[in-house]
Design a protein that fits this description.
Blueprint (H helix, E strand, L loop, with lengths): L1 H14 L2 H8 L3 E6 L2 E6 L2 H10 L1 H12 L4 E6 L19 H5 L38 H11 L8 E5 L6 H15 L5 E5 H13 L3 H11 L2 E5 L8 H16 L3 E6 L11 H8 L2 E4 L5 H15 L5 H10 L4 H18 L5 H15 L4 H12 L3 H4 L6 H17 L4 H7 L4 H17 L1 H15 L5
Parallel strand pairs: 2-3, 4-7, 4-8, 5-6, 6-7
Antiparallel strand pairs: 1-2
């Protein structure tokens, strides 16, 4: 009977993408068959649920093609092979039923809250798991690569670099890896930090003369290293050097390393060649903006999670009009639900249009020139001044904010944004990161940027 399954697998291998076949089909085991009923085994409940949702039809069709008759396929969790009990000589054992049912193990029993995995001060968000991540064409490869790293399948190696714009799910996937490792391998020590926190921690270690402890933590104690927003280290020479040494140590003993960024390694300016080479040595995977089908299923999933009853026509409207990112979909869904609750109205198409109509209408019109005109008007500078060589603070800040908003609201590359301001790619990158940093440190700058964001999200014509 296993020959039937082998033939069916060959058929599916020709139909499915290679990474999908290796991840979900190749490891399935033939368990048993009874007439037209076939049972296949997988490794865990997550795999079983995912295969049932995505690939059960394909598997059934392949088996029916081989057998020539309709079949009913069930996916079960395959049990690990049972080991034969060790024979002990020169000992007399009481042959009580209780004694024979208790398995002999040479492992020490684990105690609650012992070896609890560390995330270096940052906590994984509860909903950022693989089963809550909606997979589509725009993110399928990134999802499969992340799951491979998390489940030790070695298909993508142990070094992953996830690239995407803000709000598309790179942090969700990086934390899902952490969640999955905690579930499958709770003894693993996970360090999950942002690049900014890593740099600040290193500075504190230098000031307190505790660099040996810092190196020990990341180079020897760490089993899984998840570093968010690696582009923050642009121009930070000493931190880059330390990170390079840390990566050498971790890669040398095959530890898991996951990076996220809004930029690919070769797009980050002022990044040492040796660090850029190490970042590029693993698998680099990109998440693009979700297509309509994925946006529709994201809204369904988020509505179900939050207990919202969303009519299909409203779901269709939101998925059609909101094309930017997942956060935008979540924000619109919350807005529709809140308006319904506060006004005592049912969620319908008219209510949804009232909530997001203006946003959708204006969002399509945002261009680099739109941003320039809005910022120039707000700061009372001319179009010539904002693209000039002037280093006056009154000109530099509006210029940097303009580049930040262009990156946020348009699909133009950093090179294209820089060129529109008569600047290089590296200058555009510096402007974006400078404003991101200033928004954290300067409440006045943050208020100004948020005000301009509100204008771009709404009616900015006047």
């Amino acid at each position: 009977m296993s020959d039937i399954w082998t033939t069916a697998k060959q058929s599916m291998k020709a139909q499915l993408p290679g990474h999908t076949y290796r991840m979900w089909i190749d490891n399935l085991q033939w368990v048993e068959s009874d007439g037209d009923k076939i049972v296949l085994g997988c490794g865990n409940s997550f795999s079983r649920n995912w295969i049932n949702q995505r690939y059960l039809g394909i598997i059934s069709d392949a088996l029916e093609s081989v057998t020539g008759t309709p079949v009913s396929v069930r996916i079960d969790i395959a049990e690990a092979p049972k080991k034969k009990p060790l024979k002990k000589k020169n000992y007399q054992q009481a042959k009580s039923p209780a004694a024979t049912q208790i398995p002999v193990s040479n492992k020490q029993m684990s105690l609650p809250n012992i070896h609890k995995p560390s995330t270096a001060g940052r906590i994984f968000q509860k909903g950022f798991t693989f089963d809550q991540f909606v997979v589509g064409k725009s993110n399928e490869f990134a999802y499969n690569a992340s799951l491979s790293v998390a489940t030790d399948k070695k298909l993508a190696g142990n070094h992953l670099y996830i690239v995407s714009k803000t709000g598309l799910g790179k942090s969700h996937l990086s934390q899902a890896i952490g969640h999955q490792i905690v579930d499958l391998m709770p003894q693993k020590r996970i360090y999950y930090v942002t690049a900014e926190n890593f740099a600040n921690e290193m500075i504190q270690a230098l000031q307190k003369k505790q660099m040996n402890q810092f190196k020990e933590k990341y180079r020897k104690i760490c089993d899984v290293f998840i570093l968010e927003d690696i582009h923050f280290l642009s121009g930070k020479d000493h931190t880059q050097d330390e990170l390079s040494y840390t990566l050498d140590s971790l890669l040398g003993v095959d530890k898991k390393i996951i990076f996220t960024s809004t930029y690919a390694p070769n797009e980050i300016p002022k990044l040492h060649d040796n660090l850029s080479s190490r970042l590029s040595s693993g698998l680099i995977t990109q998440i693009d903006s979700p297509d309509y089908e994925t946006r529709f299923r994201i809204l369904q999933n988020k509505a179900a999670m939050n207990g919202y009853v969303l009519p299909e026509e409203v779901n269709h409207y939101l998925a059609t009009e909101l094309t930017k990112n997942v956060r935008q979909l979540e924000s619109a869904l919350i807005g529709v639900a809140a308006r319904s609750s506060l006004m005592g109205n049912q969620i319908d198409l008219k209510l949804a249009e009232a909530v997001i109509g203006n946003i959708c209408q204006q969002q399509k019109e945002v261009t680099i020139d739109t941003v320039k005109k809005l910022v120039c008007k707000h700061y009372k500078v001319s179009g010539d001044e904002i693209i000039s060589k002037s280093r006056k603070k009154a000109i530099v800040i509006p210029r940097q904010i303009s580049m930040y908003l262009c990156r946020k609201y348009t699909d133009h590359s950093l090179g294209e944004i820089g060129k529109s301001f008569r600047r290089h790619h590296a200058t555009a990158f510096h402007s974006v990161t400078a404003i991101e940093k200033k928004m954290k440190q300067n409440s006045n700058i943050k208020r100004q940027v948020l005000y301009l964001c509100d204008r771009l999200d709404g009616d900015f014509s006047e």
